[in-house]
Amino acid sequence: MLDGSLPILRKNAGASGQNDFYRTLLRGLKFLWSYPGRFAPLLLLAASPLWALAADQFRQRAWLAMAAFCAAVPGHLHWYQRSTPIATFADLAAISCVASTVPPDAVIDGAYGDATQWIPALTGLAVTRPHQHCTLFDETDAALAALPPARFRFVGQQLRYPPPIEPPPPTAPQCGGALYPK
Q1: Predicted local distance difference test score (pLDDT) of residue 34
Q2: Are 172 and 132 in the same domain?
Q3: Do 37 and 53 sit in the same domain of this protein?
């Protein structure tokens, strides 16, 4: 199917390197399914010229738009609407307790991939393993190096991304068993 059997790729087979680009893009799609939420906007942007080229071949473009919409809905429902949240309702209650329990300058240690990721946004407290955007690696690393040592450890109910970190310290837990003083 990817060797020129698509009508759009056959039509201008001798044209520019654009067809080679789309063939390469289509061959690489199998690697995009590991993190579809991250690549969906890029895929839409990359595929829009292909959709425009396909629309030029049809007189009734409304049917093509409806077909594209119908093709996109199952993926949207599967990857966006049914995704498992990182924080549970119990985690949110524990984070609320953390906000009222720890001092405002405290640093919280926790795993990347559990509800610890929501602590900075919901409480304003610093964490030792925040979400890092690829454009901010150097700024995030510099900010983390300037933080004082963590005085508390937060443990969410579920870990979405491996690997897990070391077990919490053997101290009496607070906030429903989610917060451990170090």
Answers
A1: 55
A2: yes
A3: yes
pTM of the model: 0.59
Does the pLDDT at position 16 exceed 90? no
Q: Domain residues for 170?
A: 89-181
pLDDT at 81 over 70: no
Helices 36-55 and 18-32 cross at an angle (nearest 10°) of: 150
Strand ranges, E, within the chain? 107-109, 126-127, 152-154, 179-181
CA distance 93 to 159: 17
Q: What is the CA radius of gyration of the chain?
A: 24
Domain annotation covers residue 1: no
Determine which helix (DSSP H) or strand (DSSP E) holds 42, and give its type and residue range: helix 36-55
The verdict on residue 2 lying in a domain is: no
How many structural domains does the chain have?
A: 2
Q: Which residues pair with 179 in a beta bridge?
A: 154, 174
Give the residue carrying structure tokens 């039509």.
11
Domain assignment present for 146: yes
Please report, rounded to a whole number, the percentage of residues in the chain having pLDDT higher than 70.
Answer: 73
Whether 28 has a pLDDT exceeding 80, the answer reads no
CA angle at 70 for the pair 64 and 76, rounded to the nearest 5°: 130
